[in-house]
Q: What sequence folds into this?
C-alpha cells in the first residue's frame, strides 16, 4: 500500500484553503489569475519541487509537477468560483500531490501532478485544460473576456514563470481526478465513494437583447421595449418548450444577468445574460440549443428588440476509461465494500478535456448536504482520507 500520510495531506489542504479564504466558513474567493490564485499556485509549485517533481507552468498558467519518466497524471484545479468552497478542485490537486509523494517515497509508480488553470470558467469553460487538449484554441481563448471585460490574454500575462511550451501529453499513461461530488447523493445514501462512469456535456453562451431605455413613470406599459420583460418572456418560453425534450437529469441555468442601466426608475433598455445547459446526451443539447435560439428570435421579433448571441462554448459528454475506472472500483470495493456506487457527473471537470489526450477516470467523495459553488461547501475529513486511500490503492494497482 503506498504510504500516504493523511496528516500531511490534510495540512496541505488547509494551507491551500488559506489562499483567498473568504472568512465565511471554509469558503474561498480564488478566481483564476487573482492574487490569491497566483499565490496559491506559487506555493503549490514549491510543494511539487519538495516532492521531487520538476515544475512546469504552461502558457495559460496550468501548473504541472512532472515525474521523470512516463507517469500517471493526477490532479484537478486550484482556482475557484467567484464564491467557492475549499475543496472544489483543491481536493484533487492535493490528493494527487500526496499520492505522488508517497509513491516516490515507496519507489512506487511515477506520478505527475497538475493544477489546471481557470477550470471554473472566469473566461471560458474549463479554459486551461480546454486549451491544453485542443478543445479551445489559444487564439480564441485570448479573445474571451470575464464579466468585467478583462481579456484572457491580459489575465494570463500575470502568471509568473510561464513557459511558451505546453506539456507533451505523450509523457502520461492516463489521468485520474478525485473531486467532491458537488451533489446530494452520496451524503444522502450514506455512501463513502462515487466512481464516475460518465461526465455530462455542456453548452454556454451569452445572449443580448436591446429594447428602449425610458422613464419608468411616463412610459405606458403598452409599447414599452423593456429588456427585463423580454428576458422574463424568453425564460418562460424555453421552460415550456423544453418540457418534451428534457429529462429529470437535464439542467439549464441563467446565472449571470446584466441589466442596463439597472436603475429603479428607468425602463431597462438592454439585458445581457448567460445561458448554460447540460445533459448526458449531445443530441439533446443540440435540440435545446435550437429551442433557445428560436425563443430568443421570437421574443426579439415580437417585441421589437435587437438580438445578438455571444460565442458558444461547449464540451461533449464523455465516458470514463474502463481500465482506469476498473482500478478505482476495485480499490473502492477493497476499502469501503458496499458503501459506494457508480454514478454520472453533473458537474464538468478537467477530465473531460484530458479525455481527448489520454484515458481518464474520476472518483467522488461526498459533499455534505450536496452543497458546492458556495462558501458552505464541505466534506467530513474522514471521507477525504478514505478517498485518498482509494486513490492510492488504484495507483498502486495500475503501477
Ligand atoms: O461548473 C462546473 O461544473 C464546474 O464546477 N466548473
Ligand atoms: Mn471543480
Ligand atoms: Mn466548480
A:
Amino acid at each position: 500500500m503506498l504510504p500516504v500520510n493523511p496528516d500531511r495531506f490534510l495540512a496541505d489542504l488547509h494551507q491551500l484553503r488559506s489562499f483567498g479564504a473568504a472568512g465565511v466558513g471554509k469558503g474561498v474567493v480564488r478566481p483564476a489569475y487573482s492574487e490569491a490564485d497566483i499565490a496559491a499556485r506559487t506555493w503549490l509549485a514549491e510543494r511539487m519541487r519538495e516532492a521531487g517533481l520538476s515544475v512546469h507552468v504552461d502558457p495559460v498558467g496550468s501548473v504541472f509537477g512532472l515525474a521523470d519518466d512516463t507517469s500517471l497524471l493526477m490532479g484537478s484545479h486550484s482556482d475557484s468560483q467567484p464564491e467557492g468552497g475549499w475543496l472544489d478542485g483543491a481536493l484533487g490537486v492535493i490528493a494527487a500531490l500526496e499520492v505522488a509523494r508517497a509513491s516516490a517515497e515507496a519507489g512506487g509508480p511515477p506520478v505527475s501532478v497538475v493544477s489546471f488553470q481557470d477550470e471554473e470558467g472566469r473566461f471560458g469553460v474549463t479554459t486551461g485544460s480546454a486549451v491544453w487538449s485542443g478543445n479551445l484554441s489559444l487564439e480564441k481563448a485570448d479573445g474571451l473576456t470575464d464579466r468585467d471585460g478583462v481579456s484572457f490574454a491580459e489575465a494570463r500575462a500575470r502568471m509568473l514563470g510561464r513557459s511558451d511550451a505546453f506539456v507533451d501529453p505523450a509523457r502520461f499513461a492516463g489521468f485520474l481526478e478525485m473531486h467532491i461530488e458537488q451533489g446530494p447523493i452520496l451524503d444522502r445514501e450514506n455512501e463513502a465513494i462515487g466512481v464516475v462512469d460518465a461526465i455530462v456535456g455542456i453548452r454556454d453562451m451569452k445572449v443580448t437583447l436591446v429594447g428602449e431605455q425610458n422613464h419608468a413613470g411616463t412610459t405606458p406599459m403598452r409599447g414599452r421595449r423593456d429588456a427585463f420583460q423580454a428576458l422574463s418572456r424568453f425564460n418562460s418560453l424555453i421552460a415550456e418548450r423544453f418540457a418534451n425534450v428534457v429529462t429529470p437529469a437535464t439542467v439549464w441555468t441563467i446565472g449571470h444577468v446584466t441589466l442596463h442601466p439597472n436603475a429603479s426608475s428607468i425602463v431597462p433598455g438592454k439585458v445581457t445574460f448567460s445561458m448554460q445547459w447540460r445533459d448526458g446526451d449531445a443530441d439533446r443539447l443540440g435540440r435545446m440549443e435550437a429551442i433557445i435560439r428560436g425563443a430568443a428570435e421570437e421574443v426579439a421579433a415580437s417585441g421589437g428588440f435587437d438580438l445578438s448571441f455571444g460565442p458558444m462554448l461547449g464540451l461533449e459528454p464523455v465516458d470514463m476509461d474502463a481500465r482506469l475506472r476498473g482500478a478505482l472500483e476495485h480499490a473502492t470495493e477493497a476499502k469501503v465494500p458496499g458503501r459506494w456506487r457508480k454514478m454520472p457527473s453533473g458537474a464538468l471537470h478537467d477530465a473531460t478535456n484530458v479525455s481527448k489526450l489520454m484515458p481518464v477516470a474520476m472518483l467522488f467523495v461526498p459533499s455534505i448536504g450536496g452543497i458546492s459553488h458556495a462558501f458552505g461547501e464541505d466534506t467530513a475529513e474522514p471521507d477525504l482520507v478514505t478517498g485518498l486511500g482509494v486513490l492510492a490503492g488504484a495507483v498502486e494497482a495500475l503501477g
Summary: The mean pLDDT is 97.
